[in-house]
Design a protein that fits this description.
The protein is mainly alpha-helical and 230 residues long. Helix content is 48%, strand content 5%. A hairpin with a 2-residue loop joins strand 1 and strand 2 (14-17). Helix 1 crosses helix 2 (61-88).
């Protein structure tokens, strides 16, 4: 990496400026931890804790290093997504988001903090995810199986008010008809399949990325304060 001293990483021979990492750190809000400094970005085996803002009495060097490594992953994912969109003839509709609202906990829980923030930050990542979702085929049998195995999700309002046991004495009249919920189930399954495709793409795409010291993946066990819990 000596030939790219100002780079946080090299992606396919292209150096990625460290300034892009600083932009992510500036864009992602950090919660006032009230003595702990934990940011609301937790889940899926990636960085669990971000430090409080620089200068806070709760800031630790280890936490600062980890947050920088975490932000590098967001930057790299955006670069890879832009390349993937170009390869597929997709055109992201807007520029990078330079100020992000808090990312919903549900997104972090389902996607992991790195992917959740990448999708909030990167139009290319959102465009690629939408494209991957659109290419997922959900068989009719899978939709019907989901309906049959998750009956508790499809009780009518009256059955819910009555406290009807969906796996006990419920009758067909206690459930929303399959045809009324089929489209929603299919959309939900397609979204889940699209997310799995996105995860698989990202894992493969970043396999050959070369990181500058101090910008490795937060879960990389080769550095002493790595963070990779499940």
């Amino acid at each position: 990496m000596n030939q790219h001293e100002d780079a946080c990483a090299v992606v396919g021979g292209e150096p990625i400026p460290r300034e892009e990492v600083e932009a992510v750190l500036a864009a992602v809000p950090v919660r006032d931890g009230g003595g702990r400094g934990d940011a609301p970005l937790k889940g899926r085996g990636e960085l669990r804790d971000q430090p409080p803002p620089p200068g806070s009495r709760n800031t630790t060097p280890s936490a600062e290093r980890q947050r920088r490594r975490w932000a590098t992953q967001v930057v790299v994912a955006d670069v890879l997504a832009r390349r993937a969109c170009e390869d597929r003839g997709l055109k992201p509709p807007e520029a990078l988001t330079r100020q992000l609202p808090a990312v919903p906990q549900a997104d972090v829980a389902g996607l992991g903090s790195i992917v959740a923030v990448t999708l909030a930050y990167s139009p290319a990542a959102r465009t690629l995810l939408t494209h991957l979702e659109s290419r997922q085929h959900i068989p009719e049998a899978a939709v019907r199986e989901y309906y049959d195995r998750n009956r508790d999700r499809f009780l009518t309002a009256d059955a819910l008010r009555a406290g009807t046991d969906p796996f006990g004495a419920a009758t067909d009249a206690d459930f929303l008809p399959y045809e009324h919920v089929k489209a929603g189930i299919e959309a939900e399954l397609r979204q889940a399949a699209g997310r799995r495709a996105f995860f698989s793409w990202l894992d493969l795409a970043r396999a050959d990325v070369v990181y500058a010291p101090g910008h490795e993946h937060p879960g990389d066990p080769s550095h002493p304060d790595h963070e990779h819990r499940h």
